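Friendly challenge for the regulars: who can give me the structure tokens for this chain first? No prize, just bragging rights.
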Amino acid sequence: MTRGSEHPAALRAQVVAAVLAGTSIAQAARQYGLSKQNVSRWVAEDGTVGTVQVLDIGELILDLLVSHVSAIQAQLQAAARPEWLERQSAAELAELVEVERDTTIRLLAGLERISEPDRPALDAAGASENA
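First reply, four minutes later:
Bragging rights claimed.
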């Protein structure tokens, strides 16, 4: 593109999407034949870089967890039907129980509260000094 000419909106969107996906500004500029200043300006004008909040990611993880638990519930309800159970071998039932147990343990382990080693603990001596 020549200097001062308008770039197509589709190109701008593609470049900004590449940066949002993790491509560096310098890499995107090289890849699309643009100046780093143009790419930086487009990304800044877009305003979405750096605005993804941890809360949004947490909500996505929670939604995924809820979907996974719902799927496990549906599988267990289907597996609990007597006519289905009678058609399964002991080995298949053991494998099902093992998989469901492992999944449950992993889900529960993911919910375990993360310890905060950098958080100072108040001891009796420290509490009395501030009193």
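The two ends are 70 Å apart (CA to CA). Residues 9-46 form one domain. Your move, everyone else.
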